[in-house]
Design brief:
Layout lengths: L5 H18 L4 E6 L2 H6 L1 H14 L5 E6 L11 E4 L6 E3 L4 H13 L8 E4 L1
Helix pairs in contact: 1-3, 3-4
């Protein structure tokens, strides 16, 4: 969805809230950096892309949350993937297209997308 007005932004926010509440409590967690720098760099669109990709693929059990500034402004938007059986991975400079690919590669195919990894532990 292209955001062209304040009403469009409100709709995205409501969709994100609905998607987040449906997915809370899962064993997989996706965290999107939504500090001021992240939002300015496109984090809202990244969050929307994650939620849309999860919904389109009927992926359940994923806790999608937001966080504030991580102090890595030059790498925003940030997207963190936490699973029980893999290292915690922080992806940097995530676009909506990259977010969709991360959902497919990391969550479905269980392959970390190395070229976008900022931190892994």
């Amino acid at each position: 969805m292209k955001i062209e007005s304040l009403d469009d932004l409100r709709k995205v926010r409501e969709q994100a809230k609905e998607g987040i509440s449906v997915r809370e409590g899962g064993d997989v967690k996706i965290v999107v950096g939504m500090g001021t720098c992240g939002i300015a760099a496109g984090a809202r669109e990244v969050l929307s892309a994650v939620l849309e990709e999860l919904a389109e693929r009927n992926i359940v059990g994923v806790d999608v949350t937001q966080t504030g500034c991580a102090g890595l402004c030059e790498h925003e938007p940030l997207l963190e993937v936490i699973t029980e059986d893999q290292p915690r991975v922080v992806y940097g400079k995530v676009t909506p297209d990259r977010a969709r690919k991360i959902v497919v590669q990391h969550l479905i195919n269980r392959q970390i997308v190395g070229e976008w990894v900022l931190k892994k532990d």
